[in-house]
Specification:
By secondary structure, the protein is of the alpha+beta class. The chain contains 8 helices and 5 strands. Strands 1-2-5-3-4 form a 5-stranded mixed sheet. Helix 5 runs parallel beside helix 6. The chain is elongated, with a radius of gyration of 19 Å.
C-alpha cells in the first residue's frame, strides 16, 4: 500500500530518477500523512491486492491525494461497496473537500444524500438543474426528462460539486444558480 502511494507522489519522473534512487526523496512521513487521511495507516505494509474493495477505492483516492491535485474527479466511488464502506467514503470525501476541490459522479442516491452537497443534474451535456438533491429530483421530474428520473424517483446522472472553503459558490441550503430548465419553464429550483 505504501509503495502504491510512493509511486503516485508528485515529483521528478525521469529514467535517471527511477534508476538512481530518487525513491528515497519521498519520506515515510509524507506517505503516512496520505494514508492516515484515507484511513489506511493500519494497512501500510499490506499488498494492495489483499485489501477489500472499499479499501482499494480509498487507496486510489490516496494515490490522487499524493499528487496534490487542485481538483479530484471521482467517478462512482462507492460502486460495489458495503453500506459501512459507503458511509466511510462519504465522510472521507467530505473531509477531503475541506482542502481540495472535489467533483463526484455518482448514481447511488443514499450516498448523494449522505454527502449533503449541491447537486447538478446533466442530460446530454446540458445542465437540467442544480441545488439540493430533493430540488434536483423535483426539477428533473418537472422537466419530464424521463430517462433521467428512474421509477423510484432517483436520478440516473448526477454531478456532485464540492467547493473549497472560501469559494463564493452557493453552499447546501442556499439558492442555486438559474439553469437552462429554469429559464425554459420560468421556474427555479431552490436548494
Amino acid at each position: 500500500v505504501a509503495d502504491n502511494v510512493r509511486l503516485a507522489l508528485s515529483g521528478e519522473r525521469t529514467t535517471w530518477s527511477a534508476l538512481f534512487g530518487s525513491r528515497d526523496r519521498i519520506t515515510d512521513g509524507e506517505i503516512d500523512i496520505v494514508l492516515e487521511r484515507v484511513r489506511l495507516s493500519a494497512h501500510r505494509e499490506r499488498l494492495a491486492g489483499d485489501l477489500s474493495h472499499g479499501q482499494k477505492q480509498w487507496l486510489e483516492i490516496a494515490m490522487l491525494l499524493a499528487q496534490d491535485p487542485k481538483l479530484l474527479l471521482v467517478d462512482e466511488p462507492v460502486a460495489g461497496m458495503t453500506d459501512a464502506e459507503t458511509e466511510d467514503t462519504a465522510r472521507l470525501l467530505r473531509d477531503i473537500a475541506q482542502t481540495h476541490s472535489v467533483v463526484v459522479v455518482e448514481h447511488d442516491m443514499a450516498f448523494v444524500r449522505a454527502l449533503d452537497v449541491k447537486v447538478t443534474c446533466l442530460h446530454e451535456g446540458s445542465v437540467i438543474s442544480e441545488g439540493s438533491i430533493d430540488a434536483v429530483i423535483k426539477c428533473a421530474a418537472r422537466s419530464q426528462v424521463h430517462n433521467i428520473v428512474s421509477h423510484d424517483g432517483d436520478l440516473e446522472v448526477v454531478f456532485l460539486e464540492y467547493y473549497r472553503a472560501g469559494d463564493d459558490s452557493p453552499a447546501p441550503g442556499e439558492p442555486a444558480a438559474e439553469t437552462a430548465t429554469d429559464r425554459a419553464t420560468g421556474e427555479r429550483a431552490t436548494s
